[in-house]
């Protein structure tokens, strides 16, 4: 069964008709031509398809497009301000936090979402003090980014980039 939905991706409104079984990732990539989120595992385990969905990080390969009619989606491509990169994007470049680049859009969106979660005081599995402020140690950053895999193994540089962007 086909349904018409509306999505706002990187500030641009889109109307499209999708089958009710279409994932948000496939709707963006195949129907809208938005290729920043990548199809990695297609099981929600690698994080390559991570975007900011209504302000929170989400894996789009597991999200049905019809469930997000009217959603505001920001991809890694939509984070830059014109030619000026988002601080996370710039830090990843400065710290060589990417190699093949396949996971990078998901890493960027996850890092931006993770920083918002930490700023809101949301604890992670390794958060030592649950009373409020979250200190973003390397261990804390690594735990919060653990849903994003990098086949090249650039984790040390990714953590260093995020640590610098926090400053």
Report on this structure.
Residues 3-79 form the 2Fe-2S ferredoxin-type domain. It comes from Gandjariella thermophila. This is Aldehyde dehydrogenase iron-sulfur subunit. Keywords: 2Fe-2S, Iron, Iron-sulfur, Metal-binding, Oxidoreductase. The chain is of the alpha+beta class and 167 residues long. It folds into two domains: 2-78, Beta-grasp domain (Ubiquitin-like (UB roll), Roll), CATH 3.10.20; 87-166, [2Fe-2S]-binding domain (DNA polymerase, domain 1, Orthogonal Bundle), CATH 1.10.150. Helices cover 31% and strands 17% of the residues. It contains five helices and five strands. The protein has helices at residues 24-31, 87-94, 104-119, 138-144, 155-166, and strands at 2-9, 12-19, 50-53, 56-59, 71-74. The chain has a five-stranded mixed sheet, sandwiched between helices. Helix 2 (87-94) packs across helix 5 (155-166). It is globular.
């Amino acid at each position: 069964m086909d349904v018409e939905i509306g999505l706002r991706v990187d500030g641009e409104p889109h109307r499209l008709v999708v089958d009710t079984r279409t994932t948000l990732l496939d709707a963006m990539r195949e129907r809208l031509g938005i290729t920043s989120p990548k199809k990695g595992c297609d099981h929600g385990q690698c994080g390559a398809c991570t975007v900011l969905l209504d302000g929170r990080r989400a894996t789009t390969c597991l999200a049905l497009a019809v469930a997000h009619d009217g959603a505001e989606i920001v991809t890694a491509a939509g984070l830059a301000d014109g030619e000026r990169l988002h601080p996370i994007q710039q830090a990843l470049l400065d710290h060589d936090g990417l190699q093949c680049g396949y996971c990078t859009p998901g890493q960027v969106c996850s890092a931006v979402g993770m920083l918002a979660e930490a700023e809101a005081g949301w604890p992670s599995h390794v958060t030592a003090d649950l009373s409020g402020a979250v200190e973003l140690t390397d261990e804390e950053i690594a735990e919060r980014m653990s849903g994003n895999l990098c086949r090249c193994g650039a984790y040390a540089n990714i953590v260093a980039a995020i640590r610098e962007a926090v400053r």
